[in-house]
Amino acid sequence: MDLMKKVPVREQDPQIRATNFEEVSYGYNDEEALLEAKRCLNCRNPLCMKGCPVSINIPGFISKLKEGKIEEAAEVIALSSALPAVCGRVCPQESQCEGKCIRGIKGEAVSIGKLERYVADWTREHGFNPAKKAEPNGHKVAVIGSGPAGLTCAGDLAKAGYDVTIFEAFHKAGGVLVYGIPEFRLPKDKVVAAEIENVRKLGVKIETNVVVGRSITVDELMASGYEAVFIGTGAGLPKFMNIPGEIYNGVFSANEFLTRNNLMKAFQEDADTPIKCGKKVVVVGGGNVAMDAARTALRLGAEVHVVYRRSMAELPARVEEVHHAQQEGVIFDLLQNPVEILGDENDQVKGIVIRKMELGEPDASGRRRPVEVEGSDYVMDCDTVIMSLGTSPNPLIRSTTSGLETNKHGCIIAKDENGETSKIGVYAGGDAVTGAATVILAMGAGKAAAKGIDEYLSGK
Ligand code: FAD
Ligand code: SF4
């Protein structure tokens, strides 16, 4: 075995997986996980942990794995994370724990994410639940939103004895984990539902179909006996380009396109919600959400073009996702930007006008600024356009909660690292505070807020 290299992970064949919604990566089996675990040096100063936003004891759980004590490995992870099977699949490890792993200096980093996934899958498949229920402490807390921020905050509070109820607008809990990230990256029933069930087993109650701000307000929740509230409502409001033609039939936001497919299973013939995915689809944008929309459209049988205004080097999506999309047949049209969408006499999309770009000087983000190439416009025929240009928080909570301060982007302002807001007893975290970010950052914020709420209510 070459210790400089990761044990490779088996995946579905690209040609086959491009036609189905089953999970792309198979994960490690027992033998592969043990081999990979042995690559960990059990560093005295484990830099990997510094890269983990929830500070999982990485060498601690890998050591247990090496000894074959998988239940104990799961217990180590459970001290820091309520969603290990999710994180093992979707976290950008290359820029976090694995990005800091000492093995990465001369060779490839330890596959920390795949090992975390292995431990979480093993425990689920063997019916072992590492989280322990606590004695009630008599305090009631409301959590708004059941995404990774809300689930983590609720789970940590329940472990400290709080009586926690999550209020969720959708009919299913999980936030982006159920409505955004597709099945082929994150299986819903097998993985997400099982991890949510573990949070429920801690005593957390989840009330779905409750839109806070409409069904009940934050102020009313507090008046009805909840002593603290955590807001983890995410950033689900899509942005558009404001170019002519965005009103034509066949233009979707990536969020709507993915929600109809993931949550409402629109790709199945008997689904209540139809989705009209055409034969030639243009996805505008280059982030993880764009990759998910492109790969979903591909699986629905379309020829898919990702149109992105910078080059491959600036593409914000995870390297693994871009690689998978390319393998499956998604076409990348780089250094190009749409300027108009064209419609036919029935107001149905029939094409998109695209302008070529070149890279100029770096902008405030440090990435080279795209500059338009004069006279380069051309028309690409297509029947569907999916806009994937980022999202911002929905204004409902801020417009219905007294004394809650937000910034110019509509994000709730957290005064400190524990997510304390301008309203006493109200904490916030995740995408609702930062704008669209990552699962693990949302979990880190939920964890910090649980600590802040505990200190506030227990007077510590
Ligand atoms: P969310 O997950 O958005 O959850 C918020 C919840 O609050 C939702 O369930 C929503 O219905 C509910 N809610 C909103 N308003 C109300 C209300 N008024 N009342 C009651 N409930 C309400 N991150 C990664 O790390 N890796 C990835 O691979 C990745 N891929 C992504 C792919 C897609 C398509 C998308 C959209 C995002 C992706 N992300 C990824 C980002 C990541 O999913 C988010 O950063 C994360 O889910 C944010 O968690 P959250 O708990 O703050 O919010
Ligand atoms: Fe193991 Fe890498 Fe962490 Fe060191 S930095 S403990 S080798 S995972």
Helix-strand layout with pairing:
Elements: H1 14-17, H2 30-37, H3 47-50, H4 58-66, H5 70-78, H6 84-90, H7 97-100, H8 103-106, H9 112-125, E1 140-144, H10 148-159, E2 163-167, H11 176-179, H12 188-201, E3 205-207, H13 218-223, E4 228-231, E5 237-238, E6 251-253, H14 254-262, E7 280-284, H15 288-299, E8 303-308, H16 319-328, E9 331-334, E10 336-343, E11 349-362, E12 368-372, E13 378-381, E14 384-387, E15 391-392, H17 396-400, E16 426-428, H18 431-434, H19 439-458
Parallel strand pairs: 1-2, 1-4, 2-3, 4-16, 6-14, 7-8, 7-14, 8-9
Antiparallel strand pairs: 5-15, 10-11, 11-12, 11-13
The structure holds flavin-adenine dinucleotide and iron/sulfur cluster (SF4).
Residues 90-92, 144-150, 167-170, 175-176, 180-181, 210-213, 232-234, 236, 258, 288-289, 292, 394, 396-397, 430-432, 436-440, 442 line the site of flavin-adenine dinucleotide (FAD).
